[in-house]
Amino acid sequence: MKIIVGITGASGSIYAVSLLRELSRREVDVYGVCSQTGQEVMQSECGVSSIDFPSVIWNKPDDMFASIASGTCCADAMIISPCSMNTLSCVAHGISNNLLQRAAAVMLKESRKLVVVPRETPLSIIHLEAMLKLANAGAIILPATPGFYKQPKSIQDLVDFITERILQIINPTT
Ligand SMILES: Cc1cc2nc3c(=O)[nH]c(=O)nc-3n(C[C@H](O)[C@H](O)[C@H](O)COP(=O)(O)O)c2cc1C
Fold this sequence. Notes:
By secondary structure, the chain is α/β, with parallel strands linked by helices.
């Protein structure tokens, strides 16, 4: 299985870190692409960078020659987590300013699974309309809003809630 993980400059890089850790335990090829701001926020919030995930095949955000920029890559699923409103709006409007956005556009045009984990509050009408547009185009909108009914004891419990929901949807080999 081929999974693409896109990481943007929204707050909540811990969601990406948790997802990458879980995927690295499974028999899947993980292709990673992190926007410029995504790298900065991940370093600031989690103190980690892409080199801390050596099993991931990392692509530079400006490398439009990367395999994931093409429909022939045939990834099974892509998750953008956390997803900024900037990236969400670009993808919703068919804009591919960087490799992350292009890879997401490819998933939509090839009718493949695209899971978007937006993190912003409050949401403007522009944000809501962009989410609706993406959902209509086939993306799954999975907001970074963990449930509290499992009596979480830690931040990691809250993060795990979202990671588990993503894994249920993409269903990678266990
Ligand atoms: C510390 C920090 C936290 C941010 N948090 C959010 C956020 O939660 N949601 C969001 O949409 N943008 C957030 N931003 C703004 C985005 O990083 C900014 O819009 C950026 O252009 C996104 O670029 P990208 O989509 O290419 O990653 C944050 C920026 C910084 C520096």
